[in-house]
């Protein structure tokens, strides 16, 4: 994995290996919070931030605490605790610092603990054996890619709610999944640019 | 206990199906369904984790402080997933590698936390166990349906066995967009059947 430069990983995780569209992570909040462009933007920012930071913390935790002690099998519990604690801490800090920021991001933070993209980011980092810089770039890229996808969907859904009639049974998750399929097809077009497995 | 066992089971499998009704646990639904064998392992893993963590949460429900309940259930789920992960690595190492991070991601699978939070937190262990198994089965049958179509069209095989006729494989079905399309279509189909049967019931009452 050494030959991959961090920049390549960053671009690949935004476009070609988008964490949402090719690895299907973070689907639950993607489906439920994509009605409004503004909330989608808020959640996207929050996910990018938390994903970047927790990947860094978990990298440190895994390679400097768990591996030397031979406790790799505890990675799931360790990662989920780090994520939950980090989200809680961010929520408290944001609450103290600024009311406006809290109003914009605060409601999304509890949702993030159970967003599988966050845990998935840390697990992929271990499986693909990234070094520290690569991990952080991968975390940031995945977060931005996720934000990009949810904003694209929110824009389409807003347009669609105004002017199109959908069959009742297909309304809601059905049509959203099919639209996502088409967005994913579009993102496959990027796959010639750079490739990570 | 106000709810009968029959109702719990039917609700989990169809009426309140985790996938096409509540739209939970979509990540793994999409990610593991390109091969039927992987899907089967994933489903068994999910049913086991769901049933065990529902029972455990239900047993601990009187002594868990209200504010700590989500953390507690997450840790319970994580503990069972670690067991599952180790068993898979020991006995099915190949499938374990293919499933990759998705076994670990059962922890954040919203079906499990959702059922634990909505049902096991306020019901007896036996009822929670049944609810867990039923939700798991509801999840499994949708997943298997998607997997059979995707593997059949994408690779021309079912469980690795070649289909009896030859055709050009739809490679797109085993790639990401195919997963989204299939799940969208299945959701559509199930909701359509559901709305028709409800309309028929309403017509009978009149």
Key words describing this protein structure:
heterodimer, A: 197 residues, mainly alpha, 9 helices, globular, B: 206 residues, two-stranded antiparallel sheet, 8 helices, 2 strands
Q: What's the short story on this structure?
A:
The complex is a heterodimer of chains A (197) and B (206). Chain A has 197 residues and is mainly alpha-helical. Helices cover 73% and strands 0% of the residues of chain A.
Write the layout of secondary structure elements.
The complex is a heterodimer of chains A (197) and B (206).
Chain A: H1 6-14, H2 27-32, H3 37-69, H4 75-97, H5 99-105, H6 109-113, H7 116-127, H8 132-163, H9 173-188
Chain B: H1 5-15, H2 26-31, H3 36-59, H4 69-91, H5 93-99, H6 110-118, H7 125-155, E1 157-158, E2 161-162, H8 176-205
Antiparallel strand pairs in B: 1-2
Helix pairs in contact in B: 1-7, 3-4, 3-6, 3-7, 4-5, 4-6, 6-7, 7-8
Termini separation of chain A: 10 Å
Average per-residue pLDDT of chain A, rounded, comes to: 85
N-to-C order of helices and strands of chain A: HHHHHHHHH
If helices are DSSP runs of H or I spanning 4 or more residues, what is the number of helices of chain A? 9
Task: Give a count of the beta strands of chain B, DSSP E runs of length 2 or more.
Answer: 2
Low-confidence stretches of chain A: none
Runs of chain B in which pLDDT lies below 50 for 5 or more consecutive residues are none
Number of domains of chain B: 1
* Overall 3D shape of chain B: flat
The domain count of chain A comes to 1
In the sheet with the most strands of chain B, the strands line up as: 1-2
Mean pLDDT of chain B: 86
Order of helices and strands of chain B: HHHHHHHEEH
């Amino acid at each position: 994995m050494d030959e991959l430069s961090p920049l390549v990983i960053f671009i690949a995780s935004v476009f070609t290996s988008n964490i949402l569209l090719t690895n299907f992570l973070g689907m639950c909040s993607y489906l439920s919070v994509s009605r409004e462009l503004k909330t989608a933007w808020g959640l996207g920012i929050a996910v990018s931030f938390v994903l970047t930071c927790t990947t860094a913390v978990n990298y440190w935790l895994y390679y400097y605490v768990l591996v030397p002690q031979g406790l790799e099998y505890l990675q799931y519990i360790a990662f989920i605790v780090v994520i939950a604690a980090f989200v809680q801490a961010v929520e408290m800090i944001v609450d103290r610092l600024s009311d406006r920021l809290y109003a914009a991001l605060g409601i999304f933070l509890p949702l993030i603990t159970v967003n599988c993209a966050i845990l998935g980011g840390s697990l992929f980092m271990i499986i693909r054996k990234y070094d520290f810089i690569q991990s952080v770039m991968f975390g940031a890229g995945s977060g931005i890619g996720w934000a990009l996808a949810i904003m694209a969907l929110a824009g389409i859904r807003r347009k669609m709610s105004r002017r199109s009639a959908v069959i009742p049974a297909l309304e809601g998750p059905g049509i959203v999944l099919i639209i996502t399929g088409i967005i994913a097809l579009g993102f496959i077009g990027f796959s010639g640019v750079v490739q990570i497995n | 206990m106000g709810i009968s066992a029959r109702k719990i089971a039917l609700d989990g499998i169809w009426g309140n199906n985790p996938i096409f009704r509540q739209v939970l646990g979509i990540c793994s639904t999409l990610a593991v369904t390109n091969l039927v064998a992987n899907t089967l392992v994933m489903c068994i893993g999910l049913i086991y984790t769901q049933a065990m963590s529902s029972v455990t949460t239900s047993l601990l429900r009187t002594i868990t402080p209200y504010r700590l309940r989500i953390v507690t259930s997450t840790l319970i789920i994580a503990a069972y997933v670690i067991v599952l992960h180790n068993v898979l690595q020991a006995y099915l190492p190949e499938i374990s590698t293919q499933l990759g991070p998705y076994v670990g991601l059962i922890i954040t699978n919203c079906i499990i936390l959702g059922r634990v939070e909505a049902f096991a937190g306020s019901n007896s262990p036996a009822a929670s166990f049944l609810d867990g198994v039923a939700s798991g089965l509801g999840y499994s049958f949708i997943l298997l349906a998607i997997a059979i179509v995707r593997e059949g069209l994408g690779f021309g095989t079912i469980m690795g066995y070649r289909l009896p006729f030859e055709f050009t494989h739809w490679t797109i079905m085993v790639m990401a967009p195919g997963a989204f399309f299939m799940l969208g279509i299945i959701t559509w189909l199930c909701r359509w059947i559901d709305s028709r049967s409800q309309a028929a019931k309403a017509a009978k009452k009149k």
